[in-house]
Design brief:
It comes from Jiella endophytica. InterPro entries: CheY-like_superfamily, HATPase_C_sf, HATPase_dom, His_kinase_dom, HisK_dim/P_dom, HisK_dim/P_sf, PAS, PAS-like_dom_sf. Its EC number is 2.7.13.3. This protein is of the alpha/beta class and 616 residues long. It folds into five domains: 4-140, 3-Layer(aba) Sandwich (Rossmann fold), CATH 3.40.50.2300; 144-224, Beta-Lactamase; 231-302; 311-465, Heat Shock Protein 90; 481-615, Response regulator (Rossmann fold). Helix content is 40%, strand content 23%. The protein has 16 helices and 22 strands. It has helices spanning 14-25, 40-49, 67-73, 113-143, 162-168, 172-175, 226-271, 276-302, 315-329, 351-368, 410-413, 433-443, 497-509, 520-529, 548-558, 596-615; strands spanning 4-10, 31-37, 54-57, 82-86, 103-108, 147-152, 157-160, 190-196, 199-212, 215-224, 311-313, 334-340, 347-349, 373-384, 394-403, 447-453, 457-465, 489-493, 513-517, 536-540, 564-568, 589-591. The chain has a five-stranded parallel β-sheet. Strands 7-6-10-9-8 form a five-stranded antiparallel β-sheet. It is elongated and about 135 Å long.
């Protein structure tokens, strides 16, 4: 659609006004609306009522003549171009009018006025169109969310929009007239870091040539991508941690199976009627295995495959209760301070794991302050109105752990939560403390943030979701040792033959008859033949061909009176519930690694329940 232009024709001669209208109407490529007034007073009124793109002015009017007409009109339209339509009795020089910025042309009425007037009007409206587009462009740039800086070709700053002032942290007066050398880049943006009060901001910079105030210029747009880069980095870190978690969990599971075999046999030797020397050595084996299992538990926690007891817990009580343990951990040169707000909220999690997080952070703080300092644990309620550092809006319990130590170097910050990464000398750290803490907090639905300055100290901020309601917890009742044995027949199903042999040996030593199968398919085949009289199926969960869940459903359907017990090292497997049962009703889960008494107690309990149901 063609632009509509408005012209104000100030002409008191009806004939001249009609001719001017006709000539302007002949400009066919422009849509022009002409309003005619006959006095200076009417012209000023018309200008106050609406905007015009140009003025055609006769200086000799009923209420004003000559240069005085122009002098009185210009204040009412300081930025509107004017073409003077002068009669033969008006002798004027454009430069003598002293209004060169507003007056574009003087057209004499007796010197080819049709051609000259149409040329002048066309030129005037092109000027008006450029001015209009410039104003629109300036308005658009002003409201853009991206920062915009305009310089002339020499790099002198001509304009900053509000977003640029906010991004750069300075006013327009601080920059106008300053020189900034922007290079005209290709279609791809350039990366730029801006240092300002409040920290570093990352921006994408694009520079293009433009016209500003009718002169060649450079327009630089800067998009603040700080949060976007941080989110991208968090996503990259999360994906890396998940990949490492899968690796760590798989390795820990395989090691746990090996440790389980060693543990089971060592326990049997220690409990058997063996020489004291053997019993003592078996005890040493058990202690070593338990230390190794502590490491695998950390790996499983990092990979979120370690079972946790989910219940409403008071972090405030945990912080108070752990104080004496921290005092024994820290040298006397380190002052321990707790800052706990009144009426802090509770959260849902595992008390032991929260204690583990605090101890891990305390060990790091101790090692960072070899000459002493202050170690502070803070606890307060915090409500987030918007997403902050990856944490969604909502109520959180905010736990902070601060030291005055050496801080963490920038090169190490990105890797600080990776498993096996440590800045400590060889032999002085496993590299699992912070990785485990990260995993525990994530498993609770929380977030752990790092703020550190080299030479000034480190603060870990942990945001844990506020607990909505209490959850119950199951308690185990130990079975007397003299009731752990039996005479029933158990089918042990596990693809790890060492685990199967160890479990079989424990059961047989305690009076059970045992058969074994290497996977679910082999177990199904043995049961279908009907040659075995089986009282209980003890099955691993993850196996080739036919896994434990599929075997369990098969047994329930074909042999409804035959109980099934699962054993697994994966607490996050879909079949495993937090209460120690499986998602297959009536089939409990025994989590690896387990002690012989735990295996015997569960088997005996399930068989006794089956017998009670049969008698009922």
């Amino acid at each position: 659609m063609a632009e509509l232009y408005r012209l104000l024709l100030v002409e008191d001669n009806p004939g001249d006004a009609e001719l001017a209208r006709d000539w302007i109407a002949g400009i066919l490529d422009m849509k022009i609306d002409v309003e005619n007034v006959v006095t200076l007073r009417n012209a000023i009124t018309a200008l106050s009522d609406g905007a015009f793109d140009g003025i055609i002015l006769d200086l000799n009017l009923p209420d004003s003549t000559g240069a005085a007409t122009l002098d009185n009109l210009v204040p009412a339209c300081p930025n509107t171009p004017i073409v003077i339509f002068a009669g033969s009795n008006t002798a004027l020089d454009l430069t003598a009018l002293n209004h060169g910025a507003g007056v574009l042309e003087i057209v004499a009425k007796d010197d080819n006025p049709d051609v000259l007037l149409t040329q002048s009007v066309r030129s005037m409206l092109k000027h008006a169109s450029a001015e209009r587009h410039h104003d629109q462009f300036r308005s658009l740039v002003t409201v853009m969310p991206d920062a915009v800086v305009v310089t002339n070709r020499a790099g002198v700053v001509q304009f900053l929009n509000p977003a640029a002032k906010s991004l750069l942290g300075k006013s327009e007066d601080d920059f106008l007239g300053e020189i900034i050398n922007f290079a005209v880049a290709s279609d791809r943006p350039s990366d730029l870091d801006i240092l300002r009060t409040g920290g570093r901001r990352s921006v994408e910079l694009r520079v293009a040539e433009c016209t500003w105030d009718y002169r060649p210029a450079l327009l630089a747009t800067m998009r603040d991508v700080t949060e976007e880069r941080q989110l991208s980095e968090r996503l990259r870190q999360t994906q890396k941690m998940e990949a490492l978690g899968l690796l760590a969990g798989g390795v820990a599971h395989d090691i746990n199976n090996l440790l389980l075999v060693v543990m089971l046999y060592a326990d049997m030797i220690r409990s058997a009627e063996a020489p004291a020397l053997f019993a003592n050595e078996a005890g040493e084996i058990v202690d070593a295995v338990e230390r190794a299992q502590a490491l695998t538990r950390q790996l499983l926690t990092f990979s979120r495959r370690q079972p946790i007891e989910r219940k409403v817990i008071s972090i405030a009580d945990i912080v108070v209760g752990i104080h004496s343990m921290l005092r024994r951990l820290m040298p006397v040169e380190i002052e321990i301070t707790s800052l706990i707000d009144d009426d802090v909220w509770s959260t849902i999690g595992d008390t032991n794991q929260i204690e583990q997080v605090l101890m891990n952070l305390a060990v790091n703080a101790r090692d960072a302050m070899p000459d002493g300092g202050r170690f502070t644990i803070g606890l307060e309620n915090r409500t987030l109105a918007e997403t902050t550092d990856g944490a969604s809006p909502g109520d959180y319990l905010c736990l902070t752990v601060t030291d005055e130590g050496s801080g963490i170097a920038d090169a190490d910050r990105e890797r600080i939560f990776e498993p096996f990464f440590t800045t400590k000398p060889r032999g002085q750290g496993t590299g699992l403390g912070l990785a485990t803490s990260y995993a525990i907090v994530a498993q609770m639905g929380g977030h752990i943030l790092l703020d550190t300055t080299v030479g000034a100290g480190t603060t870990f901020t942990i945001l844990l979701p506020r607990a909505e309601k209490a959850t119950g917890a199951e308690t185990d009742t130990a079975m007397p040792a003299n009731r752990l044995g039996g005479h029933e027949t158990v089918l042990v199903v596990d693809d790890d033959q060492a685990v199967a042999r160890a479990a079989r040996h424990i059961l047989e030593v305690n009076g059970y008859a045992v058969h074994a199968a290497a996977n679910g398919a082999e177990a199904q085949n043995l049961l279908d033949k009907g040659e075995l009289s089986v009282d209980l199926v003890l099955s691993d969960v993850v196996m080739p061909l036919v896994g434990g869940p599929e075997l369990g459903r098969y047994v329930i359907e074909r042999f409804p009176d035959l109980p099934v017990v699962f054993m697994t090292g994966y607490s996050d497997h879909p079949i495993t519930r937090q209460d120690g049962e499986s998602t297959i009703e009536g089939c409990p889960v025994l989590l690896k690694p387990f002690r012989p008494q735990a295996l015997l107690s569960l088997v005996r309990s399930v068989l006794d329940d089956r017998g009670a149901q049969g008698r009922a």
